[in-house]
Amino acid sequence: GGIITQTPKFLIGQEGQKLTLKCQQNFNHDTMYWYRQDSGKGLRLIYYSITENDLQKGDLSEGYDASREKKSSFSLTVTSAQKNEMAVFLCASSVDRGPSGNTLYFGEGSRLIVV
Amino acid sequence: GQQVKQSSPSLTVQEGGISILNCDYENDMFDYFAWYKKYPDNSPTLLISVRSNVDKREDGRLTVFLNKSGKHFSLHITASQPEDTAVYLCAAGPQQGTGSKLSFGKGAKLTVSP
Predict the structure, then answer these.
(1) How many domains does chain A divide into?
(2) Is B16 left (phi over 0), alpha (psi -120 to 50) or beta?
(3) From the list A41, A96, A106, which residue is nearest B100 (CB)?
(4) Is the pLDDT of residue A83 over 90?
(5) Cis, bond preceding B94 (omega within 30 deg of 0)
(6) Which of A30, B100, B108, B112 has its CA 20 to 30 A from that of A95?
(7) What is the DSSP letter of B83?
(8) Band of the pLDDT at A85, cuts 50, 70, 90?
(9) Number of domains in chain B
């Protein structure tokens, strides 16, 4: 088995601040994702990456940057934190081949709090 | 607009009954359909999935029905148990290969009462 680790679990920042969330996976999965979870809105894809140094925009990429520094890690930066961005951010990974290729494995989530 | 929709945000079922959760999607290119289960303060985990080459898949108490012409799929849970109480998220996307890029519904809270 493997695990996805998100740090920090809680990230508190001020309005306008640049804030970064980190994600590590030891599944050796090719693709990694960042989703945003808002109450009543489900999960919305921010960015994903199909391999090291690749970056693909999701539906909600404006106001965010991401970086796939190596296969096992994918970070997400909120470029200028706003109070309406308080949400839980979920990192996920998938192997993208074989019978279970589409399965997403999620981390425990990071809650962003903007004061 | 939202590509995957769960129209009923909540459902309550008696223990032993059948829980039916529904999902509609918009994109004709979607050919992978899944249900994820989420407990409070936990991450979603895959429950069951199906590809578009079948219209039904069973796994124990769980059955996914797929209606491609109607762009609709559903999850049936028979003999519902209190431990089935959770939020259920439907998801759909294109074939794997360049990132699964699943679109999720907003989720539906299922409560199974003893």
Answers:
(1) 1
(2) left
(3) A96
(4) no
(5) no
(6) B108
(7) G
(8) confident
(9) 1
Instruction: Give the pLDDT of residue A40.
Output: 77
Q: Encoding tokens for residue B62?
A: 């769980």
Query: What is the SS3 assignment for A92?
Result: strand
pLDDT single digits (tens) B31-53:
899 999 999 888 999 999 999 88
3-state secondary structure of A44: strand
Rounded CA gap, B32 and B95, in Å? 6
**Can you give the pLDDT at residue A47?**
96
Average pLDDT taken over every residue of chain A? 92
Residue ranges for chain B with pLDDT beneath 50:
none
Determine, for residues A102 and B100 on separate chains, whether the beta-carbon distance falls below 8 Å. Answer: yes
Q: Give me the domain span that covers residue B80.
A: 4-113
Q: How close is the nearest chain A Cα to the Cα of B99, in Å?
A: 6
**CATH number of A67's domain:** 2.60.40.10
Contact B66, B33 (CB under 8 A): yes
Cα–Cα distance for residue pair B91/B32, rounded to 1 Å: 8
Question: How many helices and strands in chain A, by DSSP H and E?
Answer: 0, 11
Instruction: Say which of B44, B96, B100 has its CB closest to residue A106.
Output: B44
| 3-state SS, one letter per residue, for B30-49 | CCEEEEEEECCCCCCEEEEE
* C-alpha separations of B19 from A37, B11, B74, B109 in Å: 25, 8, 10, 11
Name the residue in chain B with its Cα closest to that of A57: B101
- CATH number for the domain spanning B50: value is 2.60.40.10
Q: Strands A31-38, A42-49: parallel, antiparallel or unpaired by DSSP?
A: antiparallel
